[in-house]
Amino acid sequence: MGITERKGRERAEREHRIVATARAIAEREGWDAVTIRRLADEIEYSQPVLYSHFENRDAIVAAVAVEGFKDITAALRTAASESIGRRKALENVVLAYLAFAMGRPALYEAMFVLPTKLRFAEADTRPELQAAFAALAAVVKPFCTDVAVVTETFWAALHGLTELERSGRIRPAARADRIALVVRAIAGSGSSARARG
Amino acid sequence: MGITERKGRERAEREHRIVATARAIAEREGWDAVTIRRLADEIEYSQPVLYSHFENRDAIVAAVAVEGFKDITAALRTAASESIGRRKALENVVLAYLAFAMGRPALYEAMFVLPTKLRFAEADTRPELQAAFAALAAVVKPFCTDVAVVTETFWAALHGLTELERSGRIRPAARADRIALVVRAIAGSGSSARARG
DNA sequence: CTTGATGATCTAGCAACGCTAGAATATGGA
DNA sequence: TCCATATTCTAGCGTTGCTAGATCATCAAG
After folding, report:
1. Shortest Cα distance, chain B CAs vs residue A14, angstroms
2. Which domains does chain B have, with CATH numbers?
3. B133-155 b/e with 16+ CB inside 10 Å = b?
4. How distant is the Cα of A174 from the closest Cα of chain B, in angstroms?
5. ipTM of the complex, rounded to two decimals
6. Which of B121, B160, B177 lies closest to A157 in CB terms?
7. How many angstroms separate the first and last alpha carbons of chain B?
8. Contact residues for A183 (Cβ-Cβ < 8 A; gap 6+)
9. How far in angstroms lies nucleotide C25's C1' from the CA of residue A48?
10. Predicted confidence (pLDDT) per residue in B99-130, tens digit
């Protein structure tokens, strides 16, 4: 009797459709357009059904954010693995990070700007978030001893560059210069402590 | 016949009260609590009066943000001027920036996080915003040639550190280490190009 | 002083929001 | 066939930003 299983699958699939629809609307029209009524319309169920899946609207945004962390982790890992040499890896990860943020502004917004209860750097941190952090740490590690601190600061620089550029507070034209600055700050200007990998 | 002038003064004073009230509510209870009805209540006028001063709610938030930029400019200037030596000035400005952001989260949110039409790095940039940028540039200038690029990157790092720590994504305990890292990245680890001031 | 126009202010209400109580419907075992 | 359970829906509450149209105060002209 796979009845319960079938119901469970259908339920899981519906939940996935909610998240996918929310993400699609947000990326096309912004998060303001993602209303419970609109989502209910698009998945062809009434509004209360959404609340049997998620506690409230924020929980839906958070679910999209978690998807975003999976995606960015994959993007950063690819950027690192396709690079030759640790310095190039560092640089390509920076480029990949900014490309991700600029290319999917709504997704990035869900991950970092909108009020969320997702926590980092704590015991209950979700694995998706830890994985993203680890992907950043991987390319930083060859250049330092205190990996955690450097990764956090590195990440802060990337996030700051993203937000300030996205809100028009720093000059887009100077992006490459700023990136070079960050890379040099971590990898050093000359050949680093040990020779190139 | 100062009638028109008196009316103008009263109007300006009422506008100031709106902004001050919005800021006060936001800092005490968060921006969600800043509703048009609430503001109308507190200034003892009806709601449409607010719309004779500001186009919409966002414009009120923006007005508070501009006040915030004046405040942070003052804080950064003080931190710099009270420091002995350019490296200490840089370090104290970093501390002042983070103290400002952490001490007035709602104000900082209005300045950087909430959707605003305030622009930077453009012709129509408001003087308050330029002044804040200049205050950061002042302490960076002794350590580099391309002041604009370094200031933008410096600012991005500060903003990133602020946001990631405020949203619980990096460890508060490691703040001092991260700050040291940023300061060293700009000022250099040993004595900088020229001797200390 | 009265009148009429102008501008300032208010009352009342619209449409949309997140969310939920309670009715209606479908499901599956006795 | 009947009932209990679980699922889904209808309808609506309270709140939001914002606005049309009524009301009121002000002041120059007659």
Report:
1. 30
2. 1-54 (1.10.10.60), 64-197 (1.10.357.10)
3. bebbbbbbebbbeebbbbbbbbb
4. 7
5. 0.91
6. B160
7. 57
8. A87, A90, A91, A94
9. 15
10. 999 999 999 999 999 877 766 656 677 899 99
